[in-house]
Amino acid sequence: MSKFKSDIEIARKAKLKPIKKILTKLKVPDKPEAFSPMGRHIAKINFEYLKRLQNKKEGKLILVTAISPTPAGEGKTTTSVGLSDGINKIGKKSIVCLREPSLGPSFGMKGGAAGGGYAQVVPMEQINLHFTGDFHAITSAHNLLSALIDNHIYWGNKLNIDENRIVWKRVLDMNDRALRFININTKGVAKNYLRQDGFDITVASEVMAIFCLANDLKDLENRIGNITIAYNKQNKPIYAKDLNAHGPMTVLLKEALRPNVTQTLEHNPAIIHGGPFANIAHGCNSVIATKTALKLSDYVVTEAGFGADLGAEKFLNIKCRKSKLVPSCVVIVATVRALKMHGGLEKDNLKKENIPALKKGLVNLERHISNIKKFGLEPVVAINHFVLDTNNEIKEIKKFCDNISVQVSVSSHWANGGKGATDLAKKVIKICKNSNKNNFKYLYTEKLSPWKKIEKIAKEIYGAKTVTASTEVMNDLRKFELNGYGNLPVCIAKTQYSFSVDPKLKGAPQNHEIPIREVRLSSGANFIVVVCGSIMTMPGLPRVPAADKIKLNKKGETEGLF
To answer: Which residue among 131, 375, 414, 562 is the active-site one?
Structure first.
């Protein structure tokens, strides 16, 4: 058997089309007021053109989610790209809408986030490394606010900020555990204002979440102004607008807020914009990008981070609630390999057929299917095909789906591109045509208290029996309610690897406990973050990071980026 080409080898051999030809497919005029090229193969759509699209009819929205992630991989982004190519392959008009990759995972353990095999968005290297500079703009805007806070205190602290109750950290788009906790102002002219600070990764910034939920520049500025940065010595909240920070921060984000357009390997349009952490935030690409794609295409394929218990739940309860978007179909990606891991196998034992382990692991898929149906949506299961999958294993998944009346499709887009996803495309389009948006419902109403919302997600989505929290956490929730934030949705941050808070607990655990470590108010993004277990907002690098293999070869090409 010949050696498989790496993702970067496949991407490098692709012959990309000039970006204006990709935009021509979308009937975007080749005029300066419509888009701005960022090199030959990337463009940003201009606000002037976006305004002209407002009254145009919208296409159908397709959400791609997955079973609980495992080290075996599920291929959610790859499936999103393959499905969009498959829809275009059968003669329909489709755009894939993705998040921008973070440098943290690219140099860490996960690698890039531009798809894989023959279902990729390109240019792969630029997308995974810096892209159009959006993340750098978000990092700068966030850290400008940090600088303004400390500067305000240095010059007399007119707002009477309690230095021990500053809730705004700094950010960096890199995995660096050494920066989780730092002491600042230890030397120099500001040494009388010593305090502990720390860094989160940029994708965990509230500015990133706001960026991806804002409808336009004005909305962005208003939301930034409403960020809670600290509390004063009378326990009253201090907002970014109290420092006049919302104006300059919006200036830094002005160009970044325009959606980025690239292409797939099959020269179909892709919009890649924003990338909030799927734990501490809602894990979806920007509302502006999604709505733009819906105006330009008949079908829009988008994804939500991690498994359906995190990504899809937040997409539906937070993004859809704030933007009034409603998906017509939900695709749940599963692999034979991952299901066998949920059935108890270790990664080293996945190459051989094991029907008993597969059957045992199907409970994870079943839970995710059941959860999606609670929102009044019809799911379809996409089996992301791997070379070592056996016919018996595929038949077992199909039989399981048939028994619960859920459509299923074996998709070979990794190896065959859009051609390998045409069956999935046909099934998705059929569901979209028969969908009734009136059936869609949120899991909870805004009127429920934050605690009741947390309990509802924990019990109905995670299968938990109890939710526990300290007196301090309960007091914080009551304080949020007293300050007028009780109607906000909740964004639960926990491990992505399990329905529980224990990443080793695979399958579909029942009757477990969800302990809440802390709660944070994202008053600009308009949700309450609920941190459970040992979740980190500044990841660390693994023992052998991906960065070890990334270098330039003699031709000046990047190697090792996968």
So the answer is: 414
Mean pLDDT of the chain: 94
Any catalytic annotation for residue 99? yes
Active site residue 76: yes
Residue 306 a catalytic site member: yes
Query: Can you give the pLDDT at residue 111?
Result: 64
**What's the rounded mean pLDDT across residues 77-106?**
95
Query: Please, where in the chain does CATH 3.40.50.300 lie?
Result: 7-133+256-433
Residues 7-133+256-433: name the CATH superfamily.
Answer: P-loop containing nucleotide triphosphate hydrolases (3.40.50.300)
Q: What whole-number distance in Å separates Cα of residue 451 and Cα of residue 447?
A: 11
pLDDT at 188: 80
Active-site residue flag, 107? no
Q: Tell me if residue 236 falls in helix, strand or coil.
A: coil
Task: Determine the 3-state secondary structure of 551 from DSSP.
Answer: strand
- Set 119, 278, 357, 546: catalytic member: 278
| 135-253: CATH topology | Domain 2, N(10)-formyltetrahydrofolate synthetase (3.30.1510)
Q: Tell me where in the chain the CATH 3.10.410.10 domain(s) lie.
A: 450-532
- C-alpha to C-alpha distance for 555 and 286, rounded to whole angstroms: 36
More confident call, 456 vs 32: 456
Spell out where 258-350 has E strands: 260-264, 269-272, 299-303, 329-334
Indicate if 453 belongs to the active site: no
- Averaged pLDDT for residues 17-29: 95
**Among residues 44, 76, 360, 494, which one is catalytic?**
76
Is 375 in the active site? no
4 is catalytic: no
pLDDT of residue 112: 66
Q: Which residues contact 529 (CB under 8 A, 6 or more apart)?
A: 280, 281, 490, 491, 493, 519, 520, 521, 522
Confidence class for position 1, pLDDT limits 50, 70, 90: very low
pLDDT tens-digit series, residues 112-161: 678 899 999 999 889 999 999 999 999 999 999 999 999 999 999 999 99
Q: Please return the burial class of 218, using the count of CB atoms within 10 Å of its CB with bins 0-12, 13-18 and 19+.
A: exposed
One of 78, 262, 422, 537 is an active-site residue; which one? 78
Choosing from 107, 135, 306, 527, the catalytic residue is 306
Catalytic residue among 60, 99, 169, 453: 99
Residue in 44, 89, 92, 110 annotated catalytic? 110
Residue 78 annotated in active site: yes
Residue 533 in tokens? 């277990």
Pick the catalytic residue: 386, 451, 480, 562? 386
Are the C-beta atoms of 244 and 250 separated by less than 8 Å? Answer: no
CATH 3.10.410.10 fits 450-532, yes or no: yes
pTM > 0.90: yes or no: yes
